Amino acid sequence: MSHPIPKMVQIRVFSGDFRCLDKAEVITAIENKNGNFFNPWRLCTVTQVDELKILILMFPIWATGIIICAVYAQLGTLFVEQGMMMDRTIGSFSIPAASLSACDIISVIFWFLVYDRVIVPIARKFTGREKGFTELQRTGIGLFISVLCMVSAALVEMKRLALAQALGLVDENVPIPLSITWQITQYFLFGAAKVFTFIEQLEFFYKQSVNA
Fold this sequence. Notes:
Elements: H1 29-34, H2 46-74, H3 78-84, E1 86-87, E2 89-90, E3 93-94, H4 102-127, H5 135-167, E4 176-179, H6 184-211
Parallel strand pairs: 1-4
Antiparallel strand pairs: 2-3
Helix pairs in contact: 2-5, 2-6, 4-6, 5-6
């Protein structure tokens, strides 16, 4: 005599992606024989399988965040070390290399206002979208700006190394006569990248979890 199938494990797949995972929710002869429909190592519910599919589909989007996180890690490492080997004096003041990261905070505030008051209204006229761009489009823009940030840092470093070589200071642990204010551009660009990418990724994942 076959056992009745519990309602919670009725097969009802509504996602056509990764159909190989649907086997996890199929009741086999073993479950029908022993009547154990609640072993999570043998049988999963439709909801569990579909939630796994959603996570797999979102993984490529999540993986793109590694790019901007890698750039973010440079703020407290590469950028600071680079600033320590540059001229940190402005007038009679000596600026600590790490304190220049305040430009990142100022940049976020500036770009948030520009994005909300200028960029979105202009983009809305062309795209017809309430927010101007989709979450993925804004994330892509932010990733592109983060690349420009590292390009700016690379150009500053090339200039610093060229000047050090010209002055014979390559192996010397002394600052190069190149103003640390050249770093403001890379901090400013990263602030823009954060406004476009971090906020939109959070909004995208939140919407996906709610719609799931």
